[in-house]
Design a protein that fits this description.
Largest sheet: none
Number of strands: 0
Order of helices and strands: HHHHHHHHHHHHHHHHHHHHHHHH
Helix content: over 70%
Shape: globular
Structural class: mainly alpha
Strand content: under 5%
Length: 566
């Protein structure tokens, strides 16, 4: 399944040097409740545990009404509604590695680790800049910077127009699906409505991809704009698909209510169906379709999520100090990312035709892994948490413990949860339900045998990977203006047999440490190899203009993996 729950274990004995290692947290709390704590307790430890218990009780009170609403939806008779809410349910929670949030909560468990990490990074960057000054007479390579910031006004205005153009979804929903004079042939429950929605989305994508192709931007602007176009398309698709489903529920509810009013005796089954539909249309406090406003969509556009909901859990206020720290972190990480790409990645790629592809791949394993991690932190820790604080978006679980992944399937679930939730809701679960319900439909012998031999979960996983592979390939082609025979597509689709092998090989399935090692070795080696193949086949013959195209592939590969990894 896509969503995994991680239970909190007992506290480590390293948290308090005076605490006996064999004592669990439950024994500590029971000792405090009895009023006779053991002599190993210090006043500071007792105050800390009591404060944790009071904070936990306060959080439970704030979440009580949301849990009640979720339980009402989970009690519906429809299995798909149960699974949808159990798979994707927004709750107030913080990011695992959000150091700033931990400091606001008074926890300093990883303060020394963060300080040590950035001290080492700073020392290494100073050494790198000094070496570049000794060899070239300047501390920082400025050629890449002039390319990145060229034609900035044109890019900003185009990106603003891109975001504003997505607001067409609000009148689209109000007029065609929930309006008073909506066309009868576009009933949201009919397949024609889905086809009309798909045509609108494809037309919108075609307009903006064509616009980008005609602007003559350098690689950096094309990369950013193509990624942001894909992100906005996912928001548009989620908004339209979710509201089409809610419009179907609204029409069904109104028809059931009219049917109930014409009967002399009230039907209990009909009444329960109406109640379940009411819970879906009004999960918290606001009811559909009153949410179909431009302000509601603008808030969804600003929230760091790709899955639309009528309401999200909110924080009580904006902490401007937190926002300032995230802005400073974004600038700092971008500077580090720039130095690594300009001084460590591009020089090796420029010499690839001399030293060979394999040796260049080995040289790039460290720098590419560093770029990948930096892109993760700048995207999910700095930018996503910063926008979450500005919009009071309380669910900040943008990732799970992906560093403990034992395979590509687990990494896919934990690495990028906004995209994962989008794929889970709009690709994985619909395909699995369709695969289940279409088994009774008469089809060709090949499809019938395939449905009997392939479980719905495997079919849904294959469809999800296929969609993700297409998204990767389109992003790379648009950003680089070059098609490399579907290399990204096939590299993504090859993950399916690898995942199936890892799950079905009994001797390998139980080796947790070995699986984690094999995953990380493959990630560290195959990412720079893929970059070198793209660069070698496309740009090595053009030695006079290597830097621009090579940087295109570098940033595009890192950004595509960071943004769209399934």
């Amino acid at each position: 399944m896509f969503v995994s729950q991680v239970a909190d274990g007992p506290p480590s004995s390293h948290d308090s040097p005076q605490l006996r290692p064999q004592m669990t947290r439950g024994e500590i709390e029971s000792a405090l409740a009895s009023g006779s704590p053991p002599p190993v307790f210090t006043p500071s430890l007792r105050r800390s545990l009591r404060k944790d218990r009071e904070d936990s009780a306060q959080d439970q009170n704030q979440l009580s009404h949301r849990k009640t609403d979720c339980s009402q939806v989970l009690s519906q008779s429809e299995p798909e509604a149960k699974e949808r809410k159990s798979q994707i349910c927004f709750q107030p929670r913080a990011s695992i590695l959000d150091y700033t949030e931990l400091m606001y909560q008074g926890s300093d468990r990883i303060r020394g680790l963060v300080t040590c990490f950035w001290t080492i990074i700073g020392a290494y960057l100073i050494s790198l800049l000094l070496s570049h000054y000794e060899n070239n007479g300047e501390f920082l390579s400025r050629g890449l910077a002039s390319l990145i910031f060229s034609r900035g006004t044109d890019l900003i205005l185009s990106d603003l127009a891109l975001v504003l153009s997505t607001s067409f979804v609000v009148p689209f929903v109000r007029v065609l699906w929930i309006g008073r004079w909506q066309p009868r042939f576009l009933d949201p429950r009919h397949s024609r409505s889905m086809i009309f929605q798909a045509a609108a989305e494809i037309g919108w994508l075609a307009v903006w991809y064509t616009w980008q192709g005609t602007r003559g931007w350098p690689w950096s602007q094309r990369c950013f704009f193509s990624l942001h176009t894909a992100v906005n398309w996912m928001k548009v698709h989620s908004y339209l698909s979710t509201n089409r489903r809610l419009a179907c529920s609204l029409r069904t509810r109104n028809e059931l209510e009219e049917l109930q009013s014409t009967r002399k005796e009230q039907n209990e089954d009909t009444r329960m169906q109406i109640k379940a539909l009411d819970a879906e249309l009004c999960p918290y406090m606001v009811r559909f379709p009153e949410t179909q406003t431009l302000s509601n969509y603008a808030m969804f556009q600003l929230c760091p999520t790709l899955v639309y909901e009528i309401e999200y859990p909110r924080t009580s206020r904006i902490r401007w100090g937190y926002v300032a720290e995230k802005m400073a972190g974004t600038v700092g990480i971008f500077i580090v990312f720039y130095i690594v790409v300009a001084h460590l990645v591009i020089p090796h790629l420029e010499r690839m035709h001399e030293v060979g592809l394999l040796l260049t791949t080995v040289h790039l394993m460290g720098p590419m892994a560093t770029c990948w991690l930096l892109f993760f932190f700048i995207t999910f820790d700095s930018i996503a948490n910063g926008f979450a604080e500005l919009t009071c978006f309380a669910d900040r679980r943008f990732y799970d413990d992906w560093w403990n992944a034992r395979g590509l399937d687990e990494f896919s679930r934990k690495w990028n949860r906004p995209v994962h939730m989008f794929l889970a809701r709009h690709i994985y679960m619909p395909v699995r339900e369709l695969w289940k319900t279409s088994r009774d439909v008469k089809r060709s012998s090949f499809i019938t045998r395939l449905q009997k031999t392939m479980p719905p979960s495997v079919a849904a996983m294959a469809a999800t990977f296929f969609f993700s592979s297409i998204l990767h390939e389109v992003t790379i082609v648009v950003a680089c203006h070059r098609w490399n025979h579907g290399l990204f597509f096939f590299s993504q689709m090859l993950q399916i047999p690898v995942i199936l092998f890892a799950e079905r090989a009994a001797w390998f399935r139980g080796q947790q440490a070995l699986r984690n090692w094999s995953f990380w070795l493959s990630m560290v080696f195959f990412q720079p190899l893929l970059l070198c193949i793209y660069t070698y086949s496309a740009f090595v013959p053009k030695t006079s203009s290597l830097q621009g195209p090579i940087a295109t592939s570098t940033t595009s590969v890192a950004a595509a993996n960071a943004t769209y990894s399934l």
